[in-house]
Design goal:
single chain, 712 residues, eight-stranded mixed β-sheet, six-stranded parallel β-sheet, 18% strand, globular, nucleotide-binding
Length: 712
């Protein structure tokens, strides 16, 4: 639940207003499918005990469409040759109202819900007795679980021009909904529109951004409204006016899309949907989440200040962070233990809980890694190549930060520390979105780390994205975010790749193989296989599939190895050949990452068969051969197309810290600029620096190019 919407848990009575653009289609006919979905939502909420009042528009638009048809049917040939005619708005309202209410009655009856019809005008509300009786009647209906349906009675309204006159107690169905919310003491008003909410400009403008929380003091003068409703009287201007009036009278309001089939339910669940209007919104400005673009822009600006610092000053920031982590270890542990306990209570898988826990000594280990990173060679501004283009014209190719990174990761809070330290060392701005299961751990780690960043750089260098609903907005910011690195499930990575134009670096599955060749030393093979599986089963570099040369299945080695794995508590599944020979359950798929004390075993004919198996079923992460045959080893190392390939070493060595990178932002199985453990170098790009003494091109006249490589 979004923190600013926690009050939704106390909502019992709500007013729902549905606009003409939702009720009708573009041709003026009723949008029966949308109305059916709306009625199903209201039925569900009604059965959950919510008291619901519906305010509906659409009668005028529907009546206009029907009267046009009737006019056409009754027209003479002369009339058809001059089709321009105006229909009286009050007549349209009278005809459309009965049809609209008949449809609501039919839909609700099918759902076993009773509804009632109430046509009102603003003059009715001038009568105190009417208002009192209206309130009593509606309360009686709500107690009987009836859904009252209100509409302004345009057919008998005394308003001079029903589509233009804004005088009176209310002036359209939006303001009627706001008035009813106050009269009936509603807990919430939901205004359904044909867009997702209030935007900073016309929704059709790609630069317009959805405003999740309306703050009158901030947004009143900033917003540019688009056109009025295509069919009704209101449009977004009318909705905002009604929302502001209701909100500042104490009734929270949400403007959201009426096209979605579950928008009202999600609003009541506290999801960050649509635009919220609340009388206390101005008090949340210091606590509210910064908008996606603002957060990304702030990270970029801070990163530029970081890059401009002297190398020693950047190094000191890392050392200060390491000290701060150790100084706050007890506080971090308390928050992490709370996350672990909550995950266990929620029934999360053991593998996730294992990744979530910061085990004893982990903070010390992380601090040590950060200090190693701080002592590494300065990565920014290194001259990689130096060329004399012409006399007195020197070109340098230098290392440079990428800019702003967006890292989406699941479960592991220690990843936040590694990623943040790498971003600082490489001079990049950073946006982090961790899993909800590690919310408390991530929050305290972020607070400790950013508190160690100097004020002249700013703690916005590293932004912590609080809500999952922010991710789609961030993925649209290809002009301010330079690289996305997802760390998590295959589903997460696939979703992100499909949702953004920003380059994506990362891996989805960690299906790592160990192939034991026929010439392997038995004791070495056992040590490597056991370590690769049981050292840390939840890690992405743990062995998930054991491939064994067929000759080893006949000499007793395979049986011994299987017994040792089972003795350590590893559950074994077999491919077709292994399951039959070893009498173990057959694996449902070779392409499976267990992340636990389980693995797949299969028998292969030779090293080439092992390579073919890995290419067909692997994930291009880390794969290992255990053999004393040099030729077989080289065939494997050169033939397996994975980010990391090992000979006679556990797959668990595929790690940034173990590779001497200090830390890693993740392990990439992509084939763009970085593969395997991604450390500082993977977060850098290059740029060109040209130093001259007044040279101009001028059609290359008088320029003698030397293109001579110079010593660095």
């Amino acid at each position: 639940m979004d923190p600013s919407r926690s009050f939704m848990t106390n909502v019992k009575r709500l007013i729902v207003k549905v606009g003409t653009a939702v009720v009708t289609r573009a041709d003026g006919r009723l949008a029966v499918g949308r109305l059916g979905a709306l009625c199903e939502q209201l039925k569900e909420l009604n059965s959950q005990g919510y008291e619901i009042v519906l305010v509906t528009s659409g009668a005028v638009g529907l009546g206009r469409q029907r009267l046009r048809y009737r006019k056409l049917v009754n027209s003479s040939l002369a009339d058809l040759q001059n089709p321009q005619f105006e229909l009286d708005g009050k007549a349209c309202a009278a005809v459309g109202q009965s049809s609209l209410m008949a449809l609501y009655d039919t839909l609700f009856s099918q759902l076993d819900v009773s509804s009632s019809q109430h046509l009102v005008t603003d003059n009715d509300f001038r009568n105190g007795s009417f208002r009192k009786q209206l309130s009593e009647t509606v309360k009686s209906l709500l107690a009987l679980k009836v859904i009252p349906i209100f509409n302004e009675n345009d057919a008998v309204s005394t308003r001079r021009a029903p589509y233009e006159d804004s005088s009176g107690i209310f002036w359209d169905n939006d303001s009627l909904a706001g008035l009813l919310a106050l009269e009936l003491q509603a807990d919430l008003l939901v205004l359904l529109s044909d867009v997702e909410g209030l935007y900073s400009g016309p929704p059709s403008d790609p630069t317009s951004k959805l405003i999740y929380t309306y703050i009158k003091e901030k947004h009143q003068g900033e917003i540019t409204f688009g056109d009025k409703s295509r069919l009704g009287r209101g449009g977004m201007t009318a909705k905002v006016n009604a929302a502001v009036c209701a909100a500042y009278a104490g009734i929270p309001v949400v403007i959201t899309s009426g096209y979605a089939t579950d928008s009202i339910i999600k609003v009541l669940q506290g999801k960050r949907l649509g635009t919220l209007f609340h009388q206390d919104a101005h008090l949340w400005t210091s606590l509210k989440e910064v908008g996606a673009r603002e957060m990304a822009v702030a990270a970029r600006e801070s990163s530029r200040r970081l890059q401009a610092m002297h190398s020693d000053d950047r190094r000191k920031i890392l050392l200060d962070i390491a000290d701060a982590l150790e100084a706050n270890e007890s506080l971090i542990t308390v928050e992490n233990e709370a996350d672990v306990a909550a995950a266990q209570d929620a029934g999360y898988e053991k593998s996730l809980v294992a990744r979530l826990a910061l085990k004893p000594g982990k903070i010390t280990s992380l601090a040590k890694s950060i200090r190693v990173l701080a002592e590494m060679e300065e990565p920014i501004g290194r001259v990689l190549k130096k060329t004399e283009l012409a006399d007195g014209l020197i070109l340098e190719k230098t290392s440079s930060p990428l800019g702003v990174l967006l890292i989406v990761f699941e479960s592991r809070p220690d990843a936040l520390v590694q990623i943040a330290s790498l971003a600082i060392r490489s001079g990049n701005g950073l946006l982090l979105k961790g899993g909800k299961e590690a919310k408390r751990s991530n929050a305290i780690l972020h607070k400790v780390i950013t508190s160690a960043i100097p004020k002249n750089i700013g703690d916005k260098l590293i932004g912590l994205v609080a809500s999952r609903e922010d991710i789609p907005d961030l993925l649209k910011l290809d002009d301010v975010i330079d690289l996305v690195i997802p760390r998590g499930s295959n589903k997460l990575v696939s979703q992100i790749k499909e949702s953004t134009k920003i380059p994506v670096l990362g891996h989805s599955d960690g299906i790592c193989h160990v192939y034991v060749d026929k010439s392997a030393k038995v004791d070495m093979a056992k040590r490597i296989v056991l370590d690769a599986k049981i050292d840390y089963p939840a890690a992405c570099n743990a062995m998930e599939t054991l491939l064994v040369h067929k000759d080893l299945s006949n000499n007793g080695f395979l049986s011994e190895l299987i017994m040792e794995l089972q003795h350590e508590g590893v559950t074994l599944y077999g491919g077709p050949r292994a399951s039959s020979l070893l009498n173990i359950p057959e694996a449902h798929s070779f392409h499976h990452e267990y992340n636990s004390m389980a693995c797949t075993v299969e028998i292969v004919d030779d090293v080439q068969a092992a390579i073919d198996h890995i290419h067909q079923h692997g994930s291009s992460h880390t794969d290992c051969i255990v053999t004393e045959n040099h030729e077989a080893a080289e065939i494997f190392l050169n033939g397996v197309d994975s980010a990391a390939v090992f000979h006679n070493a556990s797959t668990r060595f595929c790690d940034g810290a173990r590779f001497g990178l200090g830390a890693e932002v993740g392990i990439s199985t992509s084939r763009i600029h970085a593969r395997g453990p991604v450390g500082v170098e993977g977060l850098l790009t290059t740029r060109w620096v040209l130093r001259g003494s007044g040279q101009v091109v001028d059609g290359d006249k008088g320029v003698i190019y030397t293109h001579r490589d110079l010593a660095l």
